[in-house]
Design brief:
Layout: H1 3-21, H2 26-30, H3 32-50, E1 52-56, E2 59-62, H4 66-73, H5 75-92, H6 100-125, H7 130-159, H8 165-171, H9 176-197, H10 207-210
Helix pairs in contact: 1-6, 3-4, 3-5, 4-5, 4-6, 4-7, 4-9, 5-6, 6-7, 7-9
Length: 214
Amino acid sequence: MTAFQLLSLGAYLLVFLAVVKNTDFASVLSNKQLQHRVFGAATALFVLWLFRVSIHEGMVLQFLGLTAFTLILGFRWAIITSFFVLLATTLLEGESMANFGVVGLLGTLAPILFSYTVYIITFHKMPKHLFTYIFACGFFPGAVSIAIKMLLMSAFYYYSNLYTWDIIYEGYIMLVWLLMFQEAFFNGMVVTCLVVYKPQWLYTYSDKFYLDGK
């Protein structure tokens, strides 16, 4: 492992353990709806992350789904659950564990943090309206989150001398705009469907605020 990989792994584990320490796990045992939401979202994310295209070793293209995932579970459960999903997919796909911390920190934690930050800002600073929630919390962070992940990972590949800039730019960065639209549509549609049919599955949504305007 390089120094950056070790630092990333340490930072990712530190955040994970801090979140675990401040999470009430007893609530999962006593709340069946929360159990279904956590395990259902984890299963869906696991299956989603199995569909990926490897351009070069470690350079992966895939849907993230982390914006909708965060809105469903909330910040803490999104971090905890995505940790185990990332670990499972890394082992199943036979990928190097050396990059586990880097992918966890730059490709998982950063998108979750961005998505939840957008939600918090939107909730406190923008009018509470159904379409505000769907577009400002679903479509927009969905698009930006995958761009953040890909740009951060590109910087890691480049500064770690894993690939030349030409390879990174032509095989990875040039696809950012294409994937942004797809990721926005995917997360936005998931959030829209849940708002309409299963609003109780969204941890961050309440009819009290976004429909009744209270």
